[in-house]
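Hallway conversation turned thread

IA: we were arguing at lunch whether anyone had actually written out Sugar fermentation stimulation protein homolog end to end. Turns out nobody had. So, for the record, here is the sequence (378 residues) and right after it the structure tokens. Reply here if something looks off.
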Amino acid sequence: MIRHEKLFKGRFIDRPNRFIVHVEIDDETVTCHLPNPGRLWELLYVGTTVWVRKVLTPGRKTPYDVIGIERDGIPVLLDTQYNNDVAEALIREKRIPGWEDWDVLRREVAIEGSRFDLLLHRGDDLFFLEVKSCTLFSKNGAMFPDAVTERGRRHLLHLSSLRDKGIRAGILFLVQWNRARWFLPDYHTDPDFAETFETCADKLDWKAFTVEWNDDFSEPTPGCELMYPQAVLERENRDRGTYAVIYCLEEDRCEFVKAGKKHDFKAGYYVYIGAVEENLKARLSGLRRVRKKPVQITDYLRLFMTVSSVAAVRTSDTVEAEFASCVGNVSDGFVPAITGDDGKPCLFYFKENPVHYKPFIEALEDIRMNRLETLFDF
């Protein structure tokens, strides 16, 4: 199905920006183009196996393209340019349940100012279809998107408006993880997309479908359609919950913190775990500001540290203490002067950036996704 140049296997080193990664191949570090703008925290760990291909364009600054990466021994497709090829093949081969009587008419079809990936037809009936690649997984679940996508939200609204006019429209989420059994929009990362999806889902003909790849990324094995636990989305997508702020400190500092207590802060990264009962979105948006008159402990930390990343856990449950305990268990230490309402540590030290540290990301995955499986049967 997919034709490409010979693939080379290497080890992931780092990702200096969204579209560039460094990979070690045969003891040589090469610069590669990453054709996937997603956050990919759950996949890009130092030393992880990646597959790349050499580009044929002479003089290009990035002589390799990344095709895929390994998670738990399973190849995962990262190159989003293959999405339409895969979707078209699955539809032509009648692999998607409920769409067996539809055929592909055209690709990259424009309508009313938008462009959608596939146009299907069944006789004279038309079906506008958008294809999305899903690379955010847990043990048994999948979520989309893994980064805020205003474009994706607009697609939902336009597809829904087409349906209101009597035109069939939908989305195919290609889940690159054959162990997944359920799918939800990622309301932790993009609550606006999730809310729009929840509103439009009943109008649209959409499916989340798994595929499995071999290590030459030439032919996917069709998997199964995933369940949609809508009641979990309705329960959990609230403007409240827990959050992690990841700070970076460039050099050692001795600073006064809570209640005039002084602490020696070592250079590195610090993760603060907090929670709010309401207005989580507003709380998150203010975490990067430097305030002239600090009020919260996060305001004081921001005076001498930079905010590297912020991760929200939207939930109706109280999970702050559980999350802090999990983060503490994988950290390199904690700041005793800074505690939560329960008197336990809530600011943890990491020598390296925790978003590239698998135990920390697994703790985040557990509290965001794996925990949800106690709320429904699958």
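OS: looked through it. The chain has a mean pLDDT of 94.
IA: good, adding that to the notes. The CA atoms of residues 131 and 314 lie 26 Å apart.
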